[in-house]
Amino acid sequence: MLYFLQQGTVVLALNTPGRITAMCAGQFLQPDHIENNQAVGPSSSSIHCTQVALGCDTGAIYIMSGYEVYQDEFANIQNPITCMHTLRTTDTQGLDSILCAGWFNGVAVVKQGQEVGRYKTPAWVNAMVTTSDLVNGSDREIVIGCKDRSVHGLQVTMS
Length: 159
Fold this sequence. Notes:
This protein is mainly β.
């Protein structure tokens, strides 16, 4: 279940396809793709709003839009997810990527439902931070903190 609280009171509860362990917001799917999928939640025609990627302990990622959880897996990284961040796009399609970390040594990059890259780390990732501004045109900086107390700085080129 995914609970929405307002001033300490549950105002909405949605069934989810899995146990949600991480989430991030962005624009991950084209709106026409969303309206063709089955959803569980209150009726809403607001498919153009921000989408929320829901990461599960199974490695599955689902998309929520307009307070509806779509039952089709968006992606699956095959490892439990504990941390997710949105990597804002610079492409013409306007779709964001998702950085995923969890019970594995690395950070997986998911774009349009496919794992498009993975950076290996010496230990599981505890925390991630992405820059809010573009650095050099289409590059992004990411700082990763690992369980072995190492810190890694990455520059991701978006193409």
